[in-house]
Specification:
heterodimer; A: about 220 residues; alpha/beta; Rossmann fold; 5-stranded mixed sheet; about 40% helix; about 25% strand; B: about 450 residues; alpha+beta; 4-stranded mixed sheet; 4-stranded antiparallel sheet; 15 helices
Chain lengths: ~220, ~450
């Protein structure tokens, strides 16, 4: 134990003053004791409810599945309604092939960009307007399988090497965030940028942007 | 997340009265960790489960040193979420703590402890080669620091973190994003200037070359010129031409001294009795680190480490910053405990009062004194300072950077004490340094 260097005398003197005061202390004490009793009575029970996967549930205020879904749906919707598809189809007589490249997470949260990329790919494929080829990591796995086939598969079913479809466009993007916090309130602002780039010419054919703003309020007290 | 609703008064009071202190309970964990017995440390840690935040950070630290980086990140993630929940003041705990001790309040971590969660997570992701995730951690620190700045309106000393800013610069360099690296180093530089005032810590010499180099690589010629003029002693080593890689050595030095109890005790005469007054609050005593610097030699090149973060000074300063608030709380508690004593005295007197004869007056008086004494003793016995802290944090963190030709190197590090005597050494064999990349090595001493 360390003996204090704070003037003992000051504390003693002020304390003696309080001791002479009396009175209001009784009321303060009763309030404290009552609130203690109440807090002991409040119990808790576990509740489970099934919800629709599309229902928006915000718990912590962090980036969640709803954000990922909303952003991908809206942005791919916008992308598919732009004239670049029609232009490509009239020029080449085929649907364009897209590869979804990296979506860089530049935010302050760990975001599973994988699910986001999947959401985009799904929206693209299901629209029937564009074709999507496998991304960098998936490609390696498929190639390994194809190479295996060269040795082990029957000639009729063996898939040929060097017959991959090259993508015409690449989609890249980033998720940025800005956080502003003061006291119990926090505003989180996400901006998702996506760009579609012509793989041969580097021409950007489409740029999409989606913003999400959340206000998170913290409780001021708990039991 | 945290079930505080079911709290009942009795166990809380028992906890304050008789439970062994946090210091005692956490010591076995530290002993095992310092012998690098990670499994055993994790087993010993189970005894700290009733301190959720500290359990999680200590677990994260042990797993980190055990090389289980993913699990370590999970533990730290839990700690961060716990802090978010626990930092909201609890009515129950607040009330009980006013009659007993601050120990009954949940511990959400000190501000600097919260920031060091991200330090370890940055290293976790760095060692996992996940730079993008490491950057997320660096940005999280940025958010936390901004909050601290607003929260205490300049009252707080630790508003920026030189070391984390510096590491952020390193991360950007790894991404070859020299513009952002320069900005991070610049922020780090201004923080170290602040550190010089607060903790008399020197601005790291190597930061000067980091600033000039990244400014040049980011084509910020004016800024480069500015810092070159600011540090005329800068050698030309910071403007390398040709192939080179870098080695960053992080040395986590010693154990942060734990909090100790500071006590004001006095006996005040009160009527025919005395009143025992005790006020306790936490303090940290400065301790000279066993090792004062690290010297690294590789390929005939010798460099010395510099202190990137003096955690001991930060922890001491942190307590000092809120000392007044601590004392005010302790004093309020003392007043309430006194009120409780007076109240008990009256209750005893009422109990003893029968018919108005001399015996019952005596009895009433007697019972009152006993009740008062019991309440006073209860107040006295429960008065403890809150000595909880993240104990496995290092006393200081030192850094060292060396520029090396790409290839395989043998690295030798010697650790010197304050008298310049070599007290320990460590060898790293076959360390690969790649062109334009930074290889990170880390050593922890206890």
């Amino acid at each position: 134990m360390v003996k204090s260097d704070i003037s003992l005398d000051t504390i003693r003197k002020s304390f003696v003053c309080i001791m002479k005061g009396g009175g209001i202390m009784r009321n303060v004490l009763s309030v404290l004791l009552i609130s203690l009793l109440i807090s002991g009575l409040v119990g808790c029970a576990k509740k489970v409810a099934r919800v629709d996967p599309t229902e928006t549930i915000d718990l912590s205020g962090r980036w969640n599945d709803t954000d990922s879904r909303l952003v991908s749906e809206e942005m791919t919707g916008d992308c598919l309604n732009h004239p670049w598809i029609a232009l490509y189809t009239t020029e080449h007589g085929a649907t364009p092939v897209v590869i979804v490249g990296g979506i860089r997470n530049k935010s302050h949260e760990h975001i599973a960009t994988g699910t986001f990329i999947k959401d985009i790919e799904r929206a693209f494929i299901n629209s029937g307007k564009v074709q999507v080829v496998a991304g960098a990591s998936e490609r390696l796995e498929v190639r390994a399988e194809r190479e295996e086939q060269q040795e082990w598969a029957s000639e009729e079913t063996m898939k040929r090497l060097r017959e991959e479809t090259g993508a015409d466009y690449m989609m890249i993007g980033s998720i940025d965030s800005i956080v502003d916090q003061e006291g119990k309130q926090k505003v989180v602002y996400y901006q998702v940028n996506l760009e579609l780039i012509d793989l041969e010419t580097n021409v950007k054919v489409w740029i999409g942007q989606k913003k999400i703003k959340k206000l998170i309020e913290r409780a001021s007290a708990r039991w | 997340m945290v079930g505080t609703k079911g709290i009942s008064l009795v166990p809380l009071l028992v906890l304050v009265g008789c439970a062994p202190s946090y210091l005692k309970r956490s010591t076995p964990v530290l002993e095992r960790l310092s012998r690098d017995e990670h499994e055993e440390a994790l087993t010993a840690l189970e005894g700290l489960k009733n301190e959720p935040f500290l359990y999680s950070v200590e677990r994260g630290t042990i797993l980190h040193y055990a090389g289980r980086y993913e699990e370590s990140n999970e533990a730290f993630e839990e700690a961060e979420q716990l802090r978010e929940d626990l930092i909201v003041p609890s009515v129950t705990e607040g009330t009980v703590s006013l009659l007993t001790s601050d120990i009954v309040r949940s511990y959400p971590g000190e501000d600097y402890e919260d920031i060091f969660i991200n330090y370890f997570r940055i290293l976790n992701y760095l060692f996992l080669d996940e730079y993008e995730e490491a950057m997320v951690e660096a940005r999280k620190v940025d958010v936390k620091l901004k909050v601290l700045e607003n929260l205490y309106e300049g009252e707080l000393s630790h508003k920026s973190d030189g070391l984390i800013r510096y590491l952020t610069g390193v991360l950007y360099e790894l991404e070859r994003n020299y513009n952002d690296a320069f900005i991070a180093y610049e922020k780090s530089y201004s923080t170290y200037e602040e550190y010089t005032k607060l903790y008399s810590l020197d601005t790291p010499s190597s930061l000067a070359s980091e600033l000039v180099r990244t400014a040049l690589w980011a084509n910020l010629y004016e800024e480069a010129e500015y810092y070159r003029e600011l540090f005329p002693e800068l050698e030309d080593r910071s403007f390398p031409s040709g192939r080179h890689g870098e080695l960053l050595f992080i040395f986590e030095n010693g154990l942060l001294p734990h909090k100790e109890e500071k006590v004001v005790e006095t006996v005040i005469p009160h009527g025919e009795d005395v009143y025992l007054l005790k006020i306790a609050f936490p303090t940290i005593k400065e301790k000279e680190p066993f090792i004062s610097e690290a010297r690294l030699s590789v390929d005939h090149l010798e460099t010395e480490s510099w202190v990137g973060e003096d955690l001991q000074a930060i922890a001491i300063r942190n307590l000092k910053d809120r000392e007044l608030r601590d004392i005010a709380r302790a004093t309020t508690r003392a007043v309430l405990k006194y009120a409780l004593t007076e109240q008990s005295k009256k209750m005893g007197q009422r109990l003893g009062r029968g018919e108005a004869d001399t015996i019952s007056t005596k009895r009433s008086n007697y019972l009152g004194r006993i009740f008062g004494a019991i309440a006073n003793l209860f107040g006295y016995a429960t008065e403890h300072a809150d000595l909880r802290s993240w104990r496995s944090l290092p006393q200081n963190i030192q850094l060292l950077r060396a520029e090396l030709p790409p290839g395989i190197h043998d690295v030798h590090v010697t650790f010197l004490n304050a008298n310049g005597k070599a007290v320990r050494s460590v060898d790293y064999r076959d360390i690969e340094v790649k062109e334009d990349e930074i290889t990170v090595l880390r050593y922890r001493s206890y």
